[in-house]
Write the structure tokens for this entry.
Amino acid sequence: MKEWHVEHMKNTLLKFVTGLTENASRREVRINNKYGKVGSVSKRIDYDIKHGVTNNQVCSFLQLMRTEPSYSQIRAHNGSMERLDEIQAIFHAR
């Protein structure tokens, strides 16, 4: 079950850092406004931490997203680095 929470944490962070596409539907925008804020993402990751993911795993994945060439397309999205800085500040402070 711990592996599921690690994957959920990674998918949550990828979705948050990527943000919305330019041609997002009204439904996607509405869902993003409701659940895509940094507070909601932080709560979901806290849930994963409660179930076995460590804070070090979260921080190392955030650092991996910042430096790994395979994540260069995600970093290229508009505002992705700002969102990455925002979420990284929350989890490095812990």
